[in-house]
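FOLDING PROBLEM:
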Amino acid sequence: MLSWEYPPLVVGGIAAHVEGLARAMSRAGHEVVVVSLHHPDVPDDHVADDGVRVLRADPALPWLPDDNLVARMASANHQLVQATAQLGDWRPDVVHAHDWLVAWAGDTLKTLFGVPLVATIHATERGRHGGHLPPGLPGEINSVEWWLTYQAREVIACSRFMVREVVQGFELPSEKVHLVPNGIDVHRWTADGDRPTEREPLVMAWGRIQYEKGFQVLARAIGELRHRVPGIRCVIAGRGTYLPELQTHVDMEGVSDLVQLAGFVPDDELRSLLARAACVVIPSLYEPFGIVALEGMAAGAPTIVARTGGLAEIVEGTDAGVLFEPGNHHELADRIAEVIASPESADWLRDNAADLLRRTYTWDAIAVATLDVYRVALG
């Protein structure tokens, strides 16, 4: 597997997906090698306790033009390919590329090893821009995504929403694109110690701080709740290029005393916050899947999500979460107030969420589905 991020290097949701999938495949008896980027806290060639071998490359070594992201990524992909020299005589049966950032390495390695390439498209650049492609970089990234799906023998998408987007956006035959959802390791999201008997009026949100994640909508909703929910406060955790603008939104809404932009929050601290939170909110404007929703459910926090993309598919008809229209801060404020005001409803949501995770979103089940796609690719 090729992935631009792998724990402890975490940028977005791809790291958790690749780690969960790789571990589950290893548990099932398969040999798994992940090729990712260098991180100072771990060796560049390491076999973890779960049996997954991780090779890491330093992307700073090749020539990287600062003013052209696509050229930088293409250049850095040489380092991913070079890292596989450490494999010696070992050869994979399948090369699996996760998103466009590793497209060049995936295409090269499929030829070097003489094996099929499978590509998972976790999100598209067109989708991030509301179905349009502004001039410049977005169009260039879209072209690489298109090329990756063309070069791959089979393509995986994480929701029905994303399957439609990939088939239509890249003009692929529908039989080439397979639905395999994201998964969750429930035990990793359980806080140490007993859960508190009473939760605080704390609203939690986290993820990459980008416009399409909709955190600005949450900030406006919190402003409406100042006088409706005594003691309410909100923590938004994460880093991203939209952070300065989000801070400006928070200041302009006059909620800087209620909304904390916490930056990066370690997992143990995040779990502790979730154990005390009255609810989790995922206010995305665009969301191919929404693994954060599964993480919130796994942590036992009542979960409120925007009715968009994969988020809607996770929650619709399950009674495992609450939906609101994306971008509608008035409706979001009402849903938050309702969840906080009704502990019985919150308990009901938690019970339904726990059952949903057990039935549908274990990594072992996702590994089985992914292996089925590998078998199709192998013919």
